[in-house]
Predict the 3D structure of the following.
Amino acid sequence: MASIFKLSRDKGKKNRPYYIQYFDHEGKRVTAKGFTDKALTEQLAAKLENEVMLRKRGMIDPAQERLLAIKQAPIDGHLDAFDRSLANNTAKHRKLTMTRVRRVIAGCGFRTLAEMDGEKVVEWLNAARNAEDMGARTYNHYLQAADAFGKWLVATKRVPSNPLAGMERLNSETDVRHKRRALTTEEVSRLVESARSSGVEVQGYDGELRARAYLVSFFTGLRRQEIGSLTPRSFKLDDPQPTVTVEAACSKHRRKDVLPMHPDLVAMVREWVQDLGPDDLLFPRIERKKTWLMVKKDLERVGIPYETPEGIADFHAAGRHSHITGLVRSGASIMEAKELARHADIRQTAKYTHIGMEDRAEALAGLPSPFACADVDRLHYVCNPGGVLGRELSPDGGTVDPAGGPGNEQSPAGAGLASSSDTNCHQITVCSEVEAAGIAPASRYALVTASTCVAGRLDFRPRGPFRRGPLWLSPSLNLTSSATGG
């Protein structure tokens, strides 16, 4: 039987609460606060005793009660616990995530976990987007932070399911607020030279130190905070393949990264670290500098605009974006660029690859032309010792004597073929470019030992069923006649 009482110091005083003392289903003594009205406190005591009886009989699930208690507890305690769970992330990520989550919670007026609802979050964000001219990417960042909080609640068994699941992201490609562009290799070179010859400090960095930061960023593609963590210990300059290492604590994805180094960078770093201690930073506190201002001033000094219709060229763009774009321009595959950039998704790598009209035109020019393959009309003369002038395939499958014989037409190229009394030329069909003079290709005729026989003139005009109108760009191809070895 539960007992009802007031504390000794409250006896004889009005508006002081009663307390209830009872034994729970495990036999433990429990004290609960009641009301200032004794009758209401007695009703609460009866309810508590009834719940104890139901638990003893297995009619109430303690786990469900625990979840209910958690959901009804103030949400601030859960936010503090979520903040502590982010301790292994970078300080910047932790701060941004918590700022966004707390703002969403406060904006929606959520006081307990039971009140959390994804629809209300979307409504508040849409209102904030209209009021503050919030970009689509920022909108998605808020959704991502709120969703991360919901997933953490599920992982820590505070709720059975994510109350914020199903919130749709916006298409950030249609609303780019901070568009970046990559610099060409020439522009990077001019940027470095501008810094070195400036003779001024920007953000506490002299020209030489700024130039070194630009070079490391371009040659490695490292992010600003990762560059700020580099010490002489980070480099393995004497290994067969020199490398630079970014420790997990400084890497964005919290994993240790070991990257190969460009040969030019190896030589430069070897000189830079000569006067540094093993643990001295190459670029002290660069993560706290306005690196965009450094780049802006150094670019403008040599007449390169900081911002163009293609985007801005801040430190991240001049370094990491230019690095990834340069890899692709130099012939690296998108998968190789993805691995060097340490992206989890190839779509992210594609966003860093700025391919312009000139790049696309150059790539298109390298596309093999179908005009280079002219069916059986592209002929290759294979010569071996002994015999007379080669014979040409006729449209009906017969042969034509290049010199002109009874019943045959003269070959269009007959008079120009390299001839000799001890040469027998067998004409075979190939579907590739004519080999350069003096280079003996592998014979496509298994029974003949062949060498290149260069004709003074090869005729590419269509014959018979292979006529295709515009397929033929030129009626003939003139080649300089020369002798070749056997």
User: Anything to note?
Assistant: The radius of gyration is 39 Å. The chain has a mean pLDDT of 77.
